Amino acid sequence: MVNETQHTCSASSSSKSDGGSSSGSESSKDSSRCSTPVLDADRHERLREKMRRRQDSGDKWFSLEFFPPRTANAAVNLISRFDRMGAGGPLFIDVTWHPAGDPGSDKETSSMIIANTAVNYCGLETILHMTCCNQTKDDITGHLQKAKRLGLKNIMALRGDPVGEEWEEEVDGFNYAVDLVKHIRNEFDDYFDICVAGYPKGHPEAESYEADLRHLKEKVFAGADFIITQLFFRPETFLKFVKDCQAIGITCPIIPGIFPIQGYHSLRQLVKLSKLEVPQEIKDVIEPIKDNDAAIRNYGVELAVSMCRELLDSGMVHGLHFYTLNREVATTEVLKRLGIWKEDPRRPLPWAVSAHPKRRVEDVRPIFWASRPKSYIYRTQEWDDFPNGRWGNSSSPAFGELKDYYLFYLKSKSPREELLKMWGEELTGEESVFEVFTCYITGEPNKNGHKVTCMPWNDDPLATETNLLKEQLEKVNRRGILTINSQPNINGKPSTDPIVGWGPSGGYVFQKAYLEFFTSSEIVTALLKVLKKYELRVNYHIVNVKGQNITNAPDLQPNAVTWGIFPGREIIQPTVVDPVSFLSWKDEAFALWIEQWAKLYEEESPSRMIIQYIHDNYYLVNLVDNDFPLENCLWQVVDDTFELLN
Amino acid sequence: MVNETQHTCSASSSSKSDGGSSSGSESSKDSSRCSTPVLDADRHERLREKMRRRQDSGDKWFSLEFFPPRTANAAVNLISRFDRMGAGGPLFIDVTWHPAGDPGSDKETSSMIIANTAVNYCGLETILHMTCCNQTKDDITGHLQKAKRLGLKNIMALRGDPVGEEWEEEVDGFNYAVDLVKHIRNEFDDYFDICVAGYPKGHPEAESYEADLRHLKEKVFAGADFIITQLFFRPETFLKFVKDCQAIGITCPIIPGIFPIQGYHSLRQLVKLSKLEVPQEIKDVIEPIKDNDAAIRNYGVELAVSMCRELLDSGMVHGLHFYTLNREVATTEVLKRLGIWKEDPRRPLPWAVSAHPKRRVEDVRPIFWASRPKSYIYRTQEWDDFPNGRWGNSSSPAFGELKDYYLFYLKSKSPREELLKMWGEELTGEESVFEVFTCYITGEPNKNGHKVTCMPWNDDPLATETNLLKEQLEKVNRRGILTINSQPNINGKPSTDPIVGWGPSGGYVFQKAYLEFFTSSEIVTALLKVLKKYELRVNYHIVNVKGQNITNAPDLQPNAVTWGIFPGREIIQPTVVDPVSFLSWKDEAFALWIEQWAKLYEEESPSRMIIQYIHDNYYLVNLVDNDFPLENCLWQVVDDTFELLN
């Protein structure tokens, strides 16, 4: 190979030596981005490497612990919470494991499936807890194999609570967490990053604090990569623990577990389970206000913030682990006040990346699923290779069927009654459908006074970027151009632009204007005549539910519609309009009319028949204006079409 | 797979139906480009498909026949002629085969190697002639295998001239061209496109014209794809021949062989060999002017143009095949007057593509070899896969050693004496080297009155694009920044721009400013200090002959410096600055000082020692300004460096 030469001055070392001299409050953050830009490092490193890099760069970080939900509905909510709390930039989340709850099963609510969803669909680095006592080797190995298959890369190895009152050691069984650590390293070599639990006050069942420290050292020496501690109430408890660990030779990262007190009862329950004692000074504050939830939470936030500050100021703490109890408010508040909640407008790519290792290189997707990224991930989950750099030619792998429109991570957050209020209890004609689309765009309430905050093709309100096109979108939707996806043209905005920016800083992003909509065959006929005038400039694909397809795409090649140019890198083109994928997307796009909208109404009802008519007769159209440096001509195309019709 | 849907209206049919309505003189050309843009079609189609597409689109084409040269020097000249005549856009060239001249050998002058060079190094679609009589099956198969291995895809199957006066049929041997056609199809299936010869007046040895037509039909039915005819003197001869062929069921393309008369003696010799008779009306013109070469050539051009016009006007002719006799002037003149010489400023990529089938998808190269594309092709000839879309990561395949700097297709067109006049009979110091570089840039004569039209790193005068930077380049070369490669920044010029454009029309091309030069360690020290101010904006690689390497490239990733955005396609980024390839390039770049320059002088001579000193002590530097939308900052970087030095 060619690369035998020494690199006397590597990128990271040069950047680092410069770090101190650069100005601005976020210099350390920026310099770490410069040498190892988000785009790659975050996707290519394993958790322990990310942790080390953050420690080296001085960037403080946090992580979030959740437990698996009890019901499918709660699971849907938890996934939304993952998305919202993921926006703050946790280094990882972790999902607990309760042997009684069938945690390794395929149920929507199992620890395994929740962790899978967090990794694959929410793009979060995730640690799956796993306990070992009272389990066979085969069971454990099966769980680990499944975790690996699903793309999970990190395990929190725990003993778990014994069954029954008295715990007895099993010969050749898993008796301690260290047995699980050894087993993982034996069976899976270095595949998993392993975390173990530390007890700042000693494990309640340990002979002594010192004996517990020795057990912890055993776990680390058996192959654990880092330690997360049990909660504690005083910073000095943790700092002493870290020093004691170091004194006996434990050198891996030790992450303090932070428990913001959120209510009187949850605190009592936790204390009971963990066998910890609440310090008197805390009891003194809480007891008098025990019936005032808000007051307790405010106090809990205050307490957590001051403890975290002390920990961070000690210089011994680089990351904080939060026991969220699946709640958002208190933890988010603490993180924001600490200044480590970093809602970074700079996305690494315009779409949310998945954290599955096999998707590490993925950096191109068809634009069609822009508002349904989880559906895209689901339908491509069987792929072995993901597009990198180019989408490639039309012989790309097939998309999986989307049989279950109620897949829990695709399920609408809104219940049926709410959808009916938004989309109409009773439709009177195609125009009432036009009105629903128009209200979704404008954000104005419909004639019954309800805002339309989601659509079958988009479970969220209009994206900020789409807002740039609001006026024109409103105009065309009123006339029966029922838009479901669009983007403005962008001619070289900085990659740090708060609305359209993505990727590492110092770059420039570009877009071709895109418009995708359903419309009647009458409008399509006129549109096709108009499009002749725009040959070369506008690429189009027009398809109906039967698959009759009209396009001017040369050789059915993909058209890149979003791309970015960055310092020291190859071009990145994360979204394309791919003619072949469009035919898979159209099945989904048409089915959503029926599955999400028509089925809200009784069979044979006029409302249902209206939606069915649109489904059967409308066309799905996408248009790309290739002349991105000029003013977007797609509105002119639509205007010309209506003019021709009149 | 997903693509089961009918495409009721494909790209090409929609474009074609529009073709008639579009205005402008080149509408047919443009519409064929729209539906099947140069970028792909020309590289992916086989010759017979290209021919069919040109016939369908109505685009007239031409092809050029050459014979292998006698000497290595003549070979170098022929290769230059390929490059020059290739610029006119021949559909293919063909290389004749003379059994006496060892045509299948590895000699620089063999038919095989000349055809190989045309395909691989000049990027020309090429037909290799092959004769079969008096040859064994194994010989023939060996030649064909070698041709295939070298990337040749087309064979002109001929009988060849018998040895001795009387020809006897060999039992089980190759007696007729049809035997060779059958053999190729038997042994190589459909790999080769096969051409056969047609005789508008009948083969001189055939029993009759009709019998010869039947032989031709046999050749076609045995698997030939098209026919090129022997030369003829009257258009009606050819047109009758085509009709007679069609009458007996020959439907493949029949291409007229055109022989522009270029001199009295060459005509006489050709007539003798081909046993054709020159019509009296031509003889009447030529005989009186037989000693006036210019007059005969003018007459020959005139005659050829009028015959070609008649052929093209007949509607039965789509392409013209020229017997060039390895000369340029007459054929080029005819082609230009016919308007089918199309010197298209629109290159499919910024560099000349190779026509080897395995390089079909290649569309990314390091910028370093921009002026030495043949060296790049040579050094990557063993690769099995070529970069498409992305250059990829640093673990790319190794570059072959460039051991022989006098490889005939890399050999300088200028002899030693001329190089000495340009680069100095005697050097007096580093400054006299600076002067050579400066004169090359300015185009002004050196102090001995000689223009410097080539350099060791560039065998041609300055590129038009580089001229845009002339003033600044002159300034820095005078001061010892010895530039060997550069490009200006381009922020979205039309792809049809005559200077910097490339790729299909309707697109936009971009460049990051690039500067590559040799310079002293003193300047490098100052430069490195200056570059700290430009972190993120400027990427640099600085290396000396020993391989000491300084760079700020993030993770040694490639930096795309040329890219294009086109209608209906993915992004194309044909040139990158790749840190790993740069280390292979630097070996070549440094070696050229010695091999091409130092060795012009006696060993131990002061001139040679000056070049040797530069080779041993200078650094090779490349700089990229990542902020392509802003004014190129690299000149400022150089200015700052000199300021720091003063």
Automatic annotation (TrEMBL), chains A, B:
- Annotated coiled-coil segments of the chain: none
GO biological process terms, alphabetically, are:
methionine biosynthetic process; tetrahydrofolate interconversion
Mind telling me which Gene3D superfamilies this protein's record contains? 3.20.20.220
- SUPFAM superfamilies, A to Z: FAD-linked oxidoreductase
Entries under InterPro entries matching the protein: FAD-linked_oxidoreductase-like, Fadh2_euk, Mehydrof_redctse-like, MTHFR_C
Annotated keywords: Allosteric enzyme, FAD, Flavoprotein, NADP, Oxidoreductase, Phosphoprotein
Reaction(s) this enzyme catalyzes, per UniProt = (6S)-5-methyl-5,6,7,8-tetrahydrofolate + NADP(+) = (6R)-5,10-methylene-5,6,7,8-tetrahydrofolate + NADPH + H(+)
Q: Which residues form the MTHFR SAM-binding regulatory domain?
A: 346-646
As recorded in UniProt, its EC number(s) are 1.5.1.53
Any single GO molecular-function term of the entry would be: FAD binding
> What cofactor is needed?
FAD
Source species, domain of life = Eukaryota
**One family name in Pfam for this protein:** MTHFR_C
Q: Where is this region: Disordered?
A: 1-43
UniProt keyword annotation of Isomerase present: no
Composition-biased stretches, type Low complexity, lie in 10-26
| Pathway terms, separated by semicolons | One-carbon metabolism; tetrahydrofolate interconversion
Keyword GTP-binding recorded: no
- A cellular component term, taken from the record's GO annotations: cytosol
The UniProt function text for this chain reads: Catalyzes the conversion of 5,10-methylenetetrahydrofolate to 5-methyltetrahydrofolate, a cosubstrate for homocysteine remethylation to methionine. Represents a key regulatory connection between the folate and methionine cycles.
Report the family membership: Belongs to the methylenetetrahydrofolate reductase family.
Q: How does it assemble?
A: Homodimer.
- State the protein's name: Methylenetetrahydrofolate reductase (NADPH)
Higher taxonomy: Eukaryota, Metazoa, Chordata, Craniata, Vertebrata
